[in-house]
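>> Question from a student workshop board

For tomorrow's exercise we were told to take the sequence and the ligand below, predict the bound structure, and bring the output to class. My setup keeps failing. Could a helper post the expected result so I can at least see what it should look like? The ligand is 1,3-dihydro-2H-indol-2-one.
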Amino acid sequence: NELATKISHFARFPQTGVSLRQMVEFGQNPSQGTLLRAAQFLHDELPIRLAHRVVELDTLPDNLNQMPSVLRVKRMYIDSFNELINFPKVSERIREAVRAATVQASGQRRHLPGNHQNPSCGDNATRNSSTHWIPSIQHRYHYEVKPTELPVEVSEYNRSFVKTLEKIKRRHDPVVTALAQGVVEYKQLLKSHTIHPHVQHFLDRFYLSRIGIRMLIGQQIELNQPQQRHRDYVGVICTHTRIADVMQEAIDNARFICGDYYMLMNVPEIELHCPTDLEFMYVPSHLHHMIFELLKNSLRAVVELYGDEAERYPKIKVVVAEGNEDITVKVSDEGGGIPRSAMEQVWTYMYTTAQTPMLDPEFDQSDFKAPLAGFGYGLPLSRLYARYFGGDLKLISMEGYGTDAYLHLSRLSDNEEPLA
Ligand code: W6P
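>> Workshop helper replied:
Here is what the output should look like for this input. Compare the format with yours to find the bug.
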């Protein structure tokens, strides 16, 4: 039908990645005109990304593409795609008004704090990140727009577009849970306990893409709420994320959860070595989520090795190192480690007992009744959060002793989103 034709048409366009830096430049004190340009970008880009996902869902093997849960997810993507392409384009008159109030911002990039050591800072022309050159988004969309004399339709358009984005974001809240259920059904169907590498790759790509889409939507929604803006924040990005503060918060939360879950008299201690003045540009909620996840795993390993009535546990040690390229967080536990043969499994989406919406870190941030880490979706999703901004997450384990988790966070905020 017609919609299917449109979807395969849009899926033929390449997706355009956005870097953390671009998101921040877009979002610093945006006028209604700048927000309109951002809306135009999303209005072009989101249908392309959604269409790619629909095609991927369609081509899942083993009749996975026919499963009710998968069809449900596909329906969400199609509905959102449809809403976006039916959303009115900015009229020629409004476009003209914004153009008249616009001066191109090239050559006067603003200084971004928190990333002083970035060697390629501000040098867009010499960047050669990929073999095929796609014009960067600010080349096409980012301009200074003088706040003066913009017709009222501009802010009306922005408001209306944000409403649509909010609806889309809410619609997709249950995606992780729905696909988790799909994986359970898939296991039963194939009577297998291993996930096909193709399916594992699909899920990695799919969830990574979802992180990106939700990041872009979340930025646009936040930037349109200027009354709620906090110092150092551009949308959900904090230009001066104090990593020591986020670490301590994650440590306190993880220890609290652990003590609560196992009803412990004394919770294993977590020793933190982190420069207190270390700041960088990041999304604090992503950072908290990843650290929290690692700590829960370490706590669980230690408590299960020594038992919930132990008088003392070996400390979990956290080290934060500051390099030029990366900030690296190492979490070391003496929880007995993981057999080498089980290392791969840790990253698969297999080990889930399709349960609460807590599978999805974005679903309910404040639910303290969450089960403590199993090898659920926590680790693979945390790795995707790390990779989304050019970082990574690795585990090194000594069976019979303990596990070291290395979380690499890229300081080079020019990394474009990885797009499947
Ligand atoms: C373990 C298993 C694990 C996964 C992730 C992080 C830390 C740990 N420790 O024993």
